[in-house]
Design a protein that fits this description.
The complex is a heterodimer of chains A (238) and B (657). Helix content of chain A is 22%, strand content 36%. Chain A is built from 5 helices and 11 strands. The longest helix of chain A has 14 residues, at 18-31. Chain B has a domain at 5-233: Cobalamin-binding domain (Rossmann fold). Classes of the chains: A alpha+beta (238), B alpha/beta (657).
């Protein structure tokens, strides 16, 4: 059986790399005694698959993990899911929190299925007017061409088709909050890349992934919905 | 005290591997700081990845936090990018647990596990806003302590450390806490009062209470100025069973070295390898009861979620009942497939049985340390394993599915000839041949390190090989491989930078004059000298020259019997005449048996402190030669003369003979 877990990554642990998060999950699953299937071969690995990587330093409300259970016959119930979520929360570090768990059909991998992400971005030391103009500037562009290096070779890329939504959504104590939907196929556009690609370049004070979306025609849905009651927020010791 | 977290989180995005600085490990303590509590900051002066797994630091962290009058947090040397950011932002060094400024702690306690980190200690102090020199510290500054193996010769660091602690820390940290607490409670005591009080604690050496005398470039003695003890003795915990720590091993959120559960199965080693400082200064052997080991392994695996456990000691295959303990750990499937790693495997105690057990889960490389290529050379260093032992161990490994074997060797050993050096490769080639019986392309990695003589070993009098000589010896091996690439197929050679070995040797046996050299190198930017990308021998050469010192005198020179050594006023329990006799025996190519299974020859480590070995088995584990150089299976053909020195007077005569 394949299980999908939605989790959040907030607070101090946002500075842990994607790869380290994977190792933390491996240990947590062993601690709570989930019988994850192992790959065959010389060096067996637990069958876990993570979705799109999250840049180190960014927070997220919507990270996903698929895992293959080795016991195929177990009946999945809501109670069993709740119990597992509670035990995993206890085994994970402060800031990594289980939001939802549910069995899923085998299908596309998370990386293939997700087509865009919604981001909350905070930029310091700018005012509303300035940011409104900046956003309008981005949206009015026909193309945003950048040159970057890929496997040691220069590649020219247009970022504009990846910018699906860009909005100023409010102010913070020290600046402005943006919301952006950015495409992920064939390559995920990172918020920092967009901010740096348009003149004048901006730097985000904080970035949080709010949603990941799989497109289903005109509709879109998340790989696994968060329950309406929000997950407990990160308790970060001073 | 205040947390710097909100300042730090703004800059962590700029540095490599920010997870180094966030803490949040499972097993972390958020201590309750209050004015009466003595606040310790335990520092490992290398990166987080290297320092976090350190068991000594973790043990003291738990013991102190369990103690009512103490709190403890941790810190590690910030990488150069972070140090730059901290200076730019005007932020101090901080603890990773609650991100408090290092300068707000009562005690900064550094673990000195290696000589090349000394400049990092100065860097950490400076980042903490603490004057690097003891003499410049005032009442507002923390007490600066060092412990760990290098503190057995703290003289090069004498200008910078308020006190060095010798030996096991479990008990003495409590006594230090009490002294500091009493001093804080009085409120009007001077820093000198505190240092004097600390010098009264057994195992605590306060360098500023001693004067080092020199006569025409030679040390004449390090003697107490006031009523400090003329000789400072090390601390030893008598029974490891009383200290089942760490109980809650820290589980880091980012990858570190030795990233697995570690359970210490015994402390101390009496195999008597003459190059090995750890084996000399940690005597006697104190085994943890097998039942306690099993409990610590089972509970540790369940608590941490690790799938690998390392049974640590200086020679784990010597642990009584090792096979049963390993079998129990592997059979424990509560956390999936568990693999067991046994560091410091002696080839003479590695059997097919152990090989079969530890490979059940995952086969990683296996490492053995024959240390020298010829039997003659191994008699000199008292690593009495026969070639047959090695090939039997390698055969066990290859037959049980390992493909890669790593062999550790030292070069630059006393009396070493080119024949001895080249024999390293013969041994490697023979191992490949053994491997071919079991698989098509076995691999052997030969790792060669330059020998650095250490204090409190029989080789403490030996003049270290020069950089040129060490390079020449590595060159011999490289040329030999090039001469016959076919014949050595499967053999890979790795070697340690000879320049780093001589700088290590500088501090290993150096005296107080090196303080200025260390300071100069640090001021010139020489931090992280144990990292090849930062190591710069020119900084050391320039500093030595500036202060009229030389490698020739401090590193390459043979010491004489009469000469005062910089650590003569410190004691690891070992009698100096025992070490001298062992040095003479080495030159005579005489081996010395392991005293845990034979009568005492009075090295001093037990008798001086009224303690003894704690060993569950009265006989050596079966198989191989067991360090005697004798085939214990057939009990004939003894290839070595073993000295039995139960009478120390008689050995004194032998020196004169």
């Amino acid at each position: 059986m394949r299980l999908r877990i939605r989790y959040s990554k907030k607070g101090k642990v946002r500075f842990i790399s994607h790869r380290d998060v994977a190792r933390i999950w491996e240990r947590a699953l062993r601690r709570v005694g989930v019988s994850v299937a192992y790959s065959q071969g010389f060096s067996p690995r637990p069958k876990l698959s993570f979705g799109l990587a999250l840049s180190t330093g960014h927070e997220s409300e919507a990270e996903f993990l698929d895992l293959e259970l080795s016991d195929e016959d177990g009946d999945w119930t809501a109670v069993r899911g709740e119990d597992l979520a509670a035990r995993l929360r206890a085994a994970l570090p402060v800031g990594l929190d289980v939001v939802a768990i549910a069995p899923v059909e085998k299908g596309d991998s998370l990386q293939q299925a997700v087509t865009s992400c919604t981001w909350a971005i905070e930029v310091d030391d700018v005012d509303r007017e300035y940011m409104d103009a900046w956003v309008a500037g981005v949206l009015s562009r026909e193309e945003i061409v950048v040159e970057r290096e890929r496997k040691g070779k220069p590649v020219v890329e247009d970022l504009r088709p990846h910018v699906l939504v860009l909005d100023v959504t409010g102010t913070t104590e020290t600046g402005i909050r943006l919301s952006a939907d950015l495409g992920t196929q064939p390559r995920a556009l990172r918020p920092a890349e967009l901010l740096a690609a348009v003149d004048p370049p901006l730097t985000a004070r904080s970035v949080c992934r709010m949603n990941q979306w799989m497109s289903q025609g005109d509709d879109r849905e998340e790989p696994l919905m968060a329950p309406t009651v929000p997950a407990p927020s990160a308790r970060v010791p001073a | 005290m205040s947390s710097l977290w909100s300042e730090l989180e703004r800059v962590l995005g700029e540095v490599q591997k920010p997870a180094r600085y966030i803490g949040c490990e499972d097993g972390m303590t958020v201590p309750d700081h209050h004015p009466e509590a003595v606040a310790w900051l335990l520092l490992y002066p290398d990166t987080y990845e290297v320092g976090l797994p350190n068991q000594g630091l973790q043990i003291l962290y738990e013991i102190l936090n369990e103690r009512p009058g103490a709190v403890a947090e941790r810190s590690y040397a910030p990488w150069t990018d972070m140090a730059e950011v901290l200076r730019r932002e005007g932020l101090p060094l901080f603890s990773v647990d609650t991100h408090r400024p290092a300068g707000e702690f009562d005690i900064l306690a550094f673990n000195l596990a290696a000589e090349l980190v000394y400049t990092n200690v100065l860097e950490c102090l400076d980042l903490a806003g603490v004057p690097i020199r003891t003499a410049e510290r005032g009442l507002d500054h923390p007490l600066v302590l060092v412990g760990g193996h290098c503190s057995y010769n703290p003289e090069p660091m004498a200008d910078f450390v308020d006190a060095a602690v010798l030996g096991d820390g479990e008990e003495v940290v409590g006594e230090i806490t009490d002294v500091v607490a009493a001093w804080k409670a009085i409120g009007s005591g001077s820093r000198a009062d505190l240092l004097r009080a600390l010098s009264g604690v057994t195992g605590v050496y306060v360098p500023s209470l001693y004067r080092a005398g020199f006569d025409s470039g030679l040390l004449t003695g390090v003697t107490p100025i006031g009523d400090a003890p003329p000789v400072v003795e090390k601390r030893t915990v008598a029974d490891l069973a009383d200290w089942p720590y760490p109980k809650r091993q820290l589980v880091p959120l980012t990858e570190v070295v030795h990233d697995r559960l570690n359970v210490e199965v015994f402390r101390g080693c009496t195999r008597g390898c003459r190059f090995c400082q750890a084996g000399m200064i940690t005597r006697p052997v104190r085994e943890r009861p097998a039942e306690q080991v099993r409990t610590m392994v089972a509970e540790g695996l369940r608590r941490t979620g690790y799938d690998e456990v390392s049974l640590t000691s200086l020679s784990t295959a010597d642990f009584s009942g090792i096979q049963e303990v390993v079998a129990a750990a592997v059979a424990d499937d509560s956390c999936g497939q568990v693999s067991v790693s046994l560091p410091s495997l002696r080839v003479d105690a590695f059997t097919v049985g152990i090989a079969a057990e530890i490979q059940r889960a995952r086969r990683t490389g296996l490492t053995f340390a024959p240390e020298a290529g010829t039997w003659r050379m191994r008699q000199v260093i008292n690593k009495l394993i026969t070639e047959e032992d090695l090939y039997a161990a390698v055969e066990s490994a290859y037959s049980q599915g390992w493909r890669r074997v790593k062999l550790y060797f030292l070069t630059g050993l006393p009396t070493e000839t080119d024949e001895d050096t080249l024999a390293i490769l013969k041994m490697a080639r023979n191992c490949i041949e053994v491997g071919r019986r079991h698989l098509r392309s076995p691999s052997v990695t030969v790792s060669v390190g330059g020998f650095v003589p250490k204090p409190f070993t029989p080789f403490q009098w030996f003049g270290q090989n020069t950089e040129v000589e060490l390079r020449r010896k590595v060159g011999l091996l490289r040329d030999e491989l090039k001469r016959d690439p076919k014949g050595y197929r499967g053999v890979q050679l790795k070697w340690h930078d000879a320049r780093a070995s001589v700088v290590e040797g500088l501090m290993s046996r150096g005296d107080r004059r090196l303080g200025r050299v260390i300071e100069d190198v640090w001021r010139a930017g020489g931090v992280f000298q144990e990292w090849s990308e930062h190591f710069d021998v020119r900084l050391w050469e320039a500093a030595l020259e500036r202060h009229g010192l030389s490698f020739e005198d401090l590193v390459y020179r043979h010491r004489t019997e009469q000469e005062v050594l910089p650590w003569d006023h410190l004691s690891a329990g070992l009698h100096k005449d025992f070490l001298w006799q062992d040095w003479r025996d080495a030159l005579d190519e005489l081996g010395l048996e392991d005293c845990r299974w034979i009568p005492c020859y009075d090295c001093g480590a037990c008798t001086g402190y009224g303690i003894e070995h704690v060993v569950a088995s009265a006989v050596p584990p079966a198989g191989g030669s067991q360090g005697t150089g004798q085939d214990l299976d057939s009990a004939d053909n003894v290839p070595v003369t073993l000295t039995r020195r139960t009478d120390p007077d008689r050995s004194a005569e032998m020196v004169g003979a």
